[in-house]
Amino acid sequence: MTDRIWIVLLLVYGSAVYAVSDSNDIATELIQDTHFTQGFRVIAPQHGVRVVEGYLNRNKHTQSVWDLVQWHSRYTISKAEVQELDAGARRFSNEAKSITICPPGRDLSDLVLMLDSRPEFEGKFRQDGQPWPHLLVEQAIANCPSMAELKSLKFHIEARLIEAEYNMGEGNRPSSHTAQVPFVLTIQNCSNKSPGYGDFGWFIIPLYDHRYRDWPEYIAQDTADPSQKMIYTPGAKACGVKSLHDREWVTVDTDILPILLKGMDESWARGYLAGSRDLSDYRISSINLGWEVTGLAKASIQIRNLGLKAVFTDCSKHKTD
Predict the structure, then answer these.
(1) Is residue 128 situated within a structural domain?
(2) Number of structural domains, the chain?
């Protein structure tokens, strides 16, 4: 996982906050623009610096809250021309990637991401230590209650694998080569009074990996990123994720708070997030979703109805205007 810690000036957008029926709890949707209708800021491929080099499908009436990230790509998509498709869908593409945005309720809704690593790697299998191309949508989360305040965290997504053309020839090593789609949450110490202020870890809901119908549990240091932070995924079954390999629609609708809390316990047990063990210091600071392809593959996924709904008990700190 690469560069998932954000240093940005956050603009405050309105968010849906409402009472949960038959209780005193408050629920809020943490993700802005869940149907991707407000366009994307395109981030330059050079890793380590976050430079906005253009916009795709920009809506002049609203500001984009999503970044389109293409780390380590040889082909930037920032200058791609729009292709108008049926039912209001719009596609932007180049030699190695495409992104299709479609209004909700249509055949191509809401978002299709395609990445072809073969031109990126010039048809050669990636070697150890060599970076790999990404095609991610990312968003900073500005309105998340602390992990101590959360009562539940309902994650919802509907996903379908459209294409997975994968080179299994000589040179392919499952330990190094794959095409995968994780949903990544950055949990960060956001208390400036804490000695661990700014520290973070990556917590993954595993959606698709070419190697596994049932993505297994994985806990390790991210040696591919300079931060060397911990990556934690409890595995697909623990997250209620069924296999996308059959190319049918798969719906994930589960409370992921127990998973995240278990991941934080694992982090502390292994010496990570050592500056604080106080849950009130930690919040979800960003999310991302999309392709990381280390093998030789052309792969495409469709997602719709994304949501991350927080239910919390202390509503005094989270009011609408």
Answers:
(1) yes
(2) 1
Among 270, 161, 260, CA closest to 205: 260
Is residue 12 included in any domain, yes or no?
A: no
pTM metric for this prediction: 0.90
The answer to whether position 24 is within a domain reads: yes
Q: Which amino acid is at 302?
A: Q
| Tens-digit pLDDT profile for residues 140-172 | 999 899 999 999 999 999 999 999 999 999 999
Provide the domain limits for residue 283: 17-317
Q: What is the pLDDT of residues 11-28, one digit of tens each?
A: 333 456 555 555 668 899
Q: Tell me the Cα Rg of the chain.
A: 19
Q: How far is CA 302 from CA 31, 84, 100, 107, 244, in A?
A: 18, 18, 9, 10, 11
Specify the CATH number for the domain of residue 278.
2.60.120
* CB 126 within 8 Å of CB 177: yes
Encode pLDDT of 49-70 as tens digits: 899 999 999 888 889 999 999 9
The answer to whether position 8 is within a domain reads: no
Residue 60, token pair as written in the block: 């002049």
DSSP 3-state assignment of 121? coil
* 164 exposure class (CB count in 10 Å sphere: 0-12, 13-18, 19+): middle
Among 59, 167, 179, residue whose Cα is nearest residue 113: 179
